[in-house]
Specification:
Diverse_Catalytic_Enzymes, Deoxyguanosinetriphosphate triphosphohydrolase, HD_domain, Hypothetical protein af1432, hydrolase, mainly alpha
Length: about 350
Amino acid sequence: MIVREKIQSFESLTLIKEAAFSKNTLGRKIREEEDCIRTCYMLDRDRIIQSKSFRRLKHKTQVYIKTFGDHYRTRLTHTLEVSQVARNIGVGIGLNENLIEAIALGHDLGHVAFAHNGEEVLNEYLKGGFRHNEQSVRVVTRLENDGRGLNLTEEVINGILNHSGLGTTKDIITLEGIVVKFSDKMAYLNHDIDDSIRAGLLSEEQLPKDIVEVLGDNSTLRLDTLIKDFVKTSNDNINNGIKEVGLSKEINAAMIELREFMFKNIYLGDTLKVERNKAKFILEQLIKYFEENPEEMPEIYLTIAKKESLQRAVADYIAGMSDDYCLLLFNKIFVPKAIID
């Protein structure tokens, strides 16, 4: 028996029947020979980790706080924390940890530089709007690997596509995908509070008292409460024949209220308004420049311009940039250089 088959046999012994078994995958758009060691979801995870888009996450902002310190989260460390939370929940329920990890590691590949500010700019610019979850799918299906994509399984692509927001989960085809959707919020709410306190933009005392009473008075306690409640509620559902995973009503309501608080006071609040406007200005100038000078974009985007549209190509190019690269290009293009005779 080859190693992959041993792993698949282990899945049948350790996972609940509602889990996504790798041997039952819906497959890839382009059929491939199976790996002798890795299951399909393990292979997807490895392809995502080895991608250029994944590496660029280390220089993309999580919340737009200029991260002079080493301890603030970036989009990459956020991704790793989502994976950690989701895998812990998945193991607690008996779901496929490899599928969870692949979805979690790929969920934010399409995020723009400067966090929510970048997404707002591209959403206004691109006909039909811009959503980072859809861009993440575009990255793994259209942009990575010199335009060939990563040829991931349908389950991973579906989880990436539907991870965003706190709305319905009806379009998510696996319980593993639902776990990542919730874990994303659990992770960013807690670490963004931690970073905001570190930056002096927020204090624990400012958090709504009713939320603190339900979830806990520090980030560790809040995350612990959320994870344990999710596992307990989900296991109770499964044991009662209900194929649903999620939080209890009380804990879910508290998390939603905490999310609303963070959007009002940090993500979209007045505290970072000046910095957000600076970021938007940089992105708007780069968009205008590459629309007027498309020949300066890499070849893959010129191909997209011909096959789809120049607007789509510019949006793809801008979306892939890290904060540092945006600033570097802006300075190169628009900031005067010293002239030495």
